[in-house]
Structures are given as C-alpha cells and as structure tokens.
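Session log. Operator J.P. requested a structure for one protein chain; no other inputs attached. Running the standard single-chain path with token output.
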Amino acid sequence: MKSDSGQAEKTVKSESGTAAANPGQATPAPADNIYFMVQVAAMPKNRELTQSQLKGLEPISRIEDGERIKYASGKFVLYDDALKHRRTLTGRYPDAFVIAVRSGKIMPLKEAIEQQKR
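Structure written below.
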C-alpha cells in the first residue's frame, strides 16, 4: 500500500491476541499513540518466521514494510522500558534494536523520543 508521498506504508499486526502483563508493557494507548518495540528480525514476505522461531517473544508483532516483514517484540509506552526489554533479548537476538511505532506505522526513533519528552 502506498501513502500520498509514494512511500510504502508499514502496518503492524499482532501475532498474539493479548499483551503480556509485564511491567512497562503498554496497554492503554498513550495520547500521541506512540509505542516502542524491539525489532528482532526482518524477512522477505515469502520467508516468514515460524511460531517456534518466535517462541518467548510474546507479544510479537509482524510489521509489513514493502516486500519485507519485520518482527518486533513487546509494546512499551516508555523508550527506557523498551531498552530494558532489548537487553533481555540480546543473548538470543544480538542485533535486536528499538523501533518506534505510531498508529501502526514505523516512525523515526529520534522523533518519537523527542515527542515523548514534551
């Protein structure tokens, strides 16, 4: 799907029906609708990861981005909570990193952090 600017839109789909009840996990939507997640993998759409490969990452989200699917763990209102979650995943996913999502689309992390400070 293309936006008015011609860029492919990125949408988030949750793999689990409920969010984990972990401290810092987002449940109510923040006023600006920005969440932080930890991206653990990106794959071509024709090579999706299996449930067993994603075990232990709940809640996991699939973010469709053009011809790729990005997999992200957790859903946090606070950037610092997402950083803490990333540290718990680096043993299994050493290249994991924090991303920002607003209204189901990936946004620049720096912009999200700046908006959170307001």
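Operator note: The helical segments are 79-89, 109-117.
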